[in-house]
Each structure stands twice: as C-alpha cells, then as structure tokens.
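Appendix C reproduces, verbatim, an entry submitted by the partner laboratory led by Prof. M.T., so that reviewers can inspect both the input and the predicted structure.
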Amino acid sequence: MFEGAIVAIVTPFRDGKVDEKALSELIEWHITEGTNAIVPCGTTGESATLEYEEHYRVIELTIEVVNGRVPVIAGTGANSTAETIMMTSKARELGADGALLVAPYYNKPTQEGIYRHYRAVAEAVDLPLVLYNVPGRTASNIMPETVARLAEINNIVAIKEASANMRQVSDIIRLCGDSITVLSGDDFTTYTLMALGGKGVISVVANVVPARVAEMCAAMKAGDYEKAREIHYSLEPLSGAMFLETNPIPVKTALSLMGKISEEFRLPLCEMSAGNKEKLKAVLAGYGLL
C-alpha cells in the first residue's frame, strides 16, 4: 500500500507559527519531483512541539494540497495509547490515507505492552497503520517476533524500521513475508534494506533532493541494482550532512539555505552551530543546491 520514496516532510515555521504557504509549496514541489507519499507531523515535522490544533491543521493542509495525488500518512504516535487513538481517529476524520505510529517513548514498555498498544489503536481506528521503530529516540525496540504478531492484524500494513540493524530487518522480512511492508527509516540503509526485500524509505534526505531519492527507489523496484547503488553512493555525503546535528535541524537549515523555508525551530531545538552550518553549506554546494 505504501512504498517507494516517502518524505517525512518538515513543518516550516514563520514568526512562531506554521508557515502554511511554505508547506503548501513544498508539497507541490514533492509531487512534481516524483515523491510517492508524504508524511506530515513525523519526527522531521517537529511533531513533539506542535499543539494539537497545529498538528491537526498540518495534516489537514497536507491532505488538501495533495488532493488525492499521492498517499498522506499522518504522524499520530504518542507514548499514551489513549492519546494515540485520539490523534489517529482525528487523522482518519480529516481524510488521511494512513497513520505513522512511533513506538511509545519514555515509558519503555515490554514487548507485550508494545503489542497491546498497537493492537488497541488498530482495533479503535479503521485506518492503515505504519509501525515506527526508532530505538535511538524511544528507548525501546520493536522486536521481529512482535512485528510478526502485529502483522497478523489486518490494518497494520507496514513498519518504518530505523534501528539500522540489518539482521533485525532480515528477521522481520523472514518472519512476516508479504504480510507487512518494510520501509527504511534511515536514508543510509535504504539500498541495503530494499535489497533484503523492503519496499522503500520514509526519508529525511528526500526533503532536499526528492527526485534523486525517488529515482533510487524506482531503480531498486525495477531490479536495476547498479543504478540504485550509484545513487546510494552519490547521496551518502548528503545523508551524512543531514545528521551533523539532531534531525530536523540540518534539513531545515538546508531548505532555508535553498530559499524554500525560514530557518526557524521550536525550543528545545535551535539553530545549527556555526561550524556545522559551514560544513552543511559545503556539502549542499557540492550538489549544486545553493
């Protein structure tokens, strides 16, 4: 259902508020450049600092601008199951095609708790759901055996795997087969993950070079591994630059330098250090993006 180059889109701010004009223009650019689906209000969209009404408005605006041209997968995860159900229900009401649900963070639930959390959301909201495993942010790991149990639930359709553990990815695909779609959650691992049988990426780098990420995913799907590998290596310096500091600081800074958004964050995120910003500029210049 969800595959290819999926952008975890940034949330532009201007003067402390969501910049709807800039967001709309980014969405149009992505569709023109070949992005296959859009994720508003993910980690890269600074969902943690959006008020509920802002969160819902970003989802609503994305759906309005996309207008059915590509799927919209709304970020609606939280560390409270009740809150996750509330936000996911709202996303369904607004017309989202699916929801991306980060594993409950900070609580550090057991595997049984993780399973029950996702099952409760799936039972409460009739919407295609994408699990999101990112141990570096959540302090928990959705184990392959748990993914296999969750894959038996009809409306749990995919997992964004950001553990960067290819053994774990391999185990998920071996245990689940075609019962769940595996997507990369880390641009550096997209080529390897797709070679193992994954179907695409929910990408940070696609914010900056959407056509190139889409081209790599299309090449992998077509079995043109040589072309995809060339694109992978060509994107490696840019992928590294996107994590010079905590995501989404570098990618929003890059888009600002490219003239697409304002360089604005919400605390506790702040602007890049001067040294890292110069490194980022050098990388962007090397790609002809400045």
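The chain has one domain: 4-224. Additional entries are available on request from the coordinating office.
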